[in-house]
Amino acid sequence: MAGAAVAGAEAAASAAEPEDRRAEPALIEARAQALSIGVVRLALAAVGLGAAIAFGTRPGAAAALFVLGAVLLLVAVLGGRRRRLVFLRLAEAEPLGLRATFESRGRSLLRAAYPSTIGLTVLIALAVLPQPGLAALLAGILAGLGAAALEFALQLAAWERRRGALVVAEPGRGGRVFEAQR
Predict the structure, then answer these.
(1) Which residues, 6 or more positions from 35, have their beta carbon under 8 angstroms from its beta carbon?
(2) For 53-102, what is each residue's pLDDT tens digit?
(3) Residue ranges of the alpha helices (H) in the chain?
(4) Residue of 41, 47, 84, 171 with fewest CB within 10 Å of its CB?
(5) How many CB atoms lie within 10 A of CB 76?
(6) Which residues pair with 165 in a beta bridge?
């Protein structure tokens, strides 16, 4: 009964908000999100590599599999079409309006981690006992994702510096991209 009263109060509060305010999602700071997810991915990849070695893969073999996974991922990402499209979207960034709200850094990080980072981490954990070499390869793929995110954060920082703006975006792949003047 108390839950229904709370839900009713929340519905009444959101109904009192202007229609356009409820329709606007909280924005994310693109550079901060890329930087934080890159660091998390690299840390999880290092743990995965350590676990692969601890559970039976020789250090040299584990390192080779790790590097192979990272290189394969980086070649795919850095040479891919999607990367070029991101920078084309940046060139068409809209000016940020005055009424913007921002998503918390924690929520932004969680959004960036799902599904790739969480999925790969689960796969590494599942593979480490029966196939520690596979865990090392998957950890390398995760490290490649982390390195790609950090590289994107660096490129985005340079782009922002040249434009004198901060890049923010609506969550999700199809979300709009904005630039806020510093």
Answers:
(1) 149, 150, 153
(2) 999 999 999 999 999 999 999 999 988 887 778 888 888 888 887 678 89
(3) 2-16, 19-23, 30-54, 59-78, 81-91, 105-113, 116-127, 132-163
(4) 84
(5) 14
(6) 181
